[in-house]
Amino acid sequence: MKLDLPGLLRERLPSGAYRYRVRVEGEKARRIRLTVTPDHPEFMEHYRAARRGVALEPTIAPEDRVVRNSVAWLTYKHEAALERQVEAGLASSLTLKKRRQVMKILREEYGEYDMRVPQIKIIELRDKMIDTPAWADSVVAGIRSMYRWAVDDVKICQINPAIGIGTIDRGKGGAVAWTVADLKKYRQKHPPGTTAHLALTLFMFTACRIGDAIELGRGNEFTRDGIRGIGWQPRKRGSAPVAIPMLPPLFKATRATTVQGPTYLLNYKGKPFATPDSLGQMFRRWCREAGLDDRSSHGIRKAAGHLLAQEGCSQYQIMSIHGHTQAKTSEIYTKGVERWRMAADAMKRLEGMEW
């Protein structure tokens, strides 16, 4: 939620979460921290009070405004738990943002139901969104995760009704992987020295996610055994730390831009991108300008994985670059290439066969 209110300050915490403070009107040095976020029903009341120099505490928690043990009650408790995890650095702020959207949909449809909602209702909810199959499956996944927390972590529910519900997104394979021709077309439109060119180079030569790209900068560079490297801890929960050599094309691109700052990628104001969404929107704009309407930053990550495999990298080498902790995640890049190599080796054995 984007707000433009006088004196309202949004500050990013090391965990990735945001806190809101308000500058007291007439007292520039005095700021009051809000105890509620913009999606809270009492946010504006707290904001106005803070502008007058009064700090309010939330009166009633959202889960206390609805029927206990209802679906709405469960969603509010789950959101509150996720907020605490984000503040503690145990969950991503992006996960919280997405989960809030899912919880809102669930409340609108079945908020007054008992939290032991029948599985058929979740299936009906999924099927209502069949025009956007990927989002429909994402909603089911979010509901499944909420009930997993309710059953396994806090034990306030006995059954997870979302288990066993199949997906309806068939065969699109996620983001479209970039081809060599795509990369060339983009670079022709966005030459070295532009932020657009730097963004592509950063994605290509680090295979980082967009949530990490907004934070990478010279502070992530290091030298080991005489080799310049770049390292970071991916924001995605469960990812392994990444430390890779900084290849010449990336080093050159990071030094080619006119304006330098704390991060490699800066917006048109010369400041770091505030959120992954803001960079994502800008990157899609750069893609459209290059005539690549259906391309995304994640597609570059996929392209990097495939190119690494084609160049002979094992799935464990790809794991170290992509930050994967499970071999099966990187296997999608090596499986087809390795099968082709094995088939080619097998055919060579038949070359001298008498027929």
From TrEMBL:
<protein>
    <submittedName>
        <fullName>Integrase</fullName>
    </submittedName>
</protein>
<dbReference type="GO" id="GO:0015074">
    <property type="term" value="P:DNA integration"/>
</dbReference>
<dbReference type="GO" id="GO:0006310">
    <property type="term" value="P:DNA recombination"/>
</dbReference>
<dbReference type="Pfam" id="PF00589">
    <property type="entry name" value="Phage_integrase"/>
</dbReference>
<dbReference type="InterPro" id="IPR013762">
    <property type="entry name" value="Integrase-like_cat_sf"/>
</dbReference>
<dbReference type="GO" id="GO:0003677">
    <property type="term" value="F:DNA binding"/>
</dbReference>
<feature type="domain" description="Tyr recombinase">
    <location>
        <begin position="173"/>
        <end position="347"/>
    </location>
</feature>
<dbReference type="InterPro" id="IPR002104">
    <property type="entry name" value="Integrase_catalytic"/>
</dbReference>
<dbReference type="InterPro" id="IPR011010">
    <property type="entry name" value="DNA_brk_join_enz"/>
</dbReference>
<keyword id="KW-0233">DNA recombination</keyword>
